[in-house]
User: What shape does this take?
Amino acid sequence: MPRFQILLFQGLLWLGILLTQTFLIGGGENILETIPKSGIIVLGQMTLVYLNTLFLFPRLYLKKKHFLYLIIGLMLILAISYGVQELVEYFYPRGRYRGVRKISTLTKSWYFLGRSFPLFMAFLLSTLLQVTRLFAIKEKESVQLRSEKLETELKFLRSQTNPHFLFNALNNIYTLTLIKSDKAPDYLLVLSDMLRYMLYECNAPKVRLEKEIGYIRHFISLNLLKDSRGLNVNFDCGEIPDHLEIAPMLLIPLVENAFKHSKFEDKANGWINIKLQLLGESLHLNVQNSLPDKSHTTDDTGGIGLVNVRRQLELIYPDQFQLNIEERDHIFSVDLIIEKL
Assistant: This one.
């Protein structure tokens, strides 16, 4: 908030306090006579509030010197209350006592306590305001810190791309160039588009879902270069609306995992089935692949990719996803549902 607006707000606030106290003291009568008295009280409140805000609170309370803060605060309240009372009696010697010039000690004491109460409330409210402000600042810093931490973690998770695929893709394209295949330039462009997506477009929190699916299609096409006769890899995906978005590089590890562990090069026994469908704005992805005839541990079949995906889902789509991983009868299945993209 600009400094001018802050000063204007404070000015209007003190004016409101002045008018309120004038009404309370005078009961709505003799306003012209009561306003100067209220003005002296408000002046004392302003002095106390600004001394507390600018000096006592930051130098004592924030430095954990709470007892000293309380003692000095009470002393300041009493000192300013005395000053306010003396000023009022100096300018208005009869006070509220209808012609009585000399006031008894007991009456003066009650009068002093009455003057102290508005100052005590001003001190208390200013302290509560500063504590609330401090809490809000710390909460904002905490939220910002958590946000930055999550962003750093997400960047790290997304940076864990599989270099094995990149080397294989380059080797396959290199093989095409050796046999002087006309498809080599096209596949080189495909790889270029994938790298551009990974390095530049994935920096955004969300990307268009069709972009992510396009990457998956390119990934599959480059892996199928291993055998020109065709392999048992099926990708079933319907029409994708333009407006749907998803966190980048979220679906890809599920597909990579299937290619890594299925031994799909074995046309007789290896296969991969990928099905992606949309139900309203909810996404359902099912990836199934064959498992070779050998023992597999969770780390062997799942790998860091699935752990990576689950962590990203927890960060980006908390309470909005289901991720089920199952292995049975030489079939590894991953089923992902994300609600309300």
Remarks:
- The beta strands are 207-208, 233-237, 245-246, 272-279, 282-290, 321-328, 331-338.
- The chain has a mean pLDDT of 81.
- The first strand starts at residue 207 and ends at 208.
- The chain has two domains: 3-146, 160-338.
